[in-house]
Amino acid sequence: MREIRYTPSHEWLRLEDDGSVTVGITGYAQELLGDLVYVALPKEGESFSQGQEAATIESVKAAADVTMPVDGTIVMVNTLLIDEPNLVNEAPESDGWFFRILPSAPSQLEGLMGSLAYQHQINP
C-alpha cells in the first residue's frame, strides 16, 4: 500500500511510485461538508505554494478551499469531478481525488501527519 499523509485542514496525500502526489479531502472533511455539488479544479501546469488555495468545493452546507499541501506543480486533475462532484461523496479517499502534483520541495511531506496522528486530530 502506498504511503498516505494528512494535513491539519483535512487533505490526504498519496505518494505515487513516480514521485508525484495525489491529493483529495478526507472522509471526515466530506462528512462535515455534506454532499458536494460543485468543484473548481486548478489547471495542469499551474504552480502553487504550500497552503495556497488550489481548488474550491461547494456542498449543500458550505463552500471550502482545498489547499496545496506542499509546494508543487499540478500535473493532472480529476476532470470527472467537474460533471460528477458526487464522486467525492461516494469515495473521498479514492475515486474522489482532486489533483496530482509534482512536489518542488519533497521534504515538506515529512512535516505532514501519518494516519495515526491524523486519527488523534479528529478523535482527540
UniProtKB/TrEMBL annotation:
Pfam families: GCV_H. The modification N6-lipoyllysine is found at K61. Keywords: Lipoyl. InterPro entries: 2-oxoA_DH_lipoyl-BS, Biotin_lipoyl, GCV_H, GCV_H/Fam206, GCV_H_sub, Single_hybrid_motif. Binds 1 lipoyl cofactor covalently. Residues 20-102 form the Lipoyl-binding domain. Its cofactor is (R)-lipoate. Coiled coil: none annotated. The keyword Nucleus does not apply. The keyword Nucleotide-binding does not apply. The glycine cleavage system is composed of four proteins: P, T, L and H. Belongs to the GcvH family. HAMAP family: GcvH. PANTHER family: GLYCINE CLEAVAGE SYSTEM H PROTEIN, GLYCINE CLEAVAGE SYSTEM H PROTEIN-RELATED. The glycine cleavage system catalyzes the degradation of glycine. The H protein shuttles the methylamine group of glycine from the P protein to the T protein. This is Glycine cleavage system H protein. It comes from Serratia grimesii.
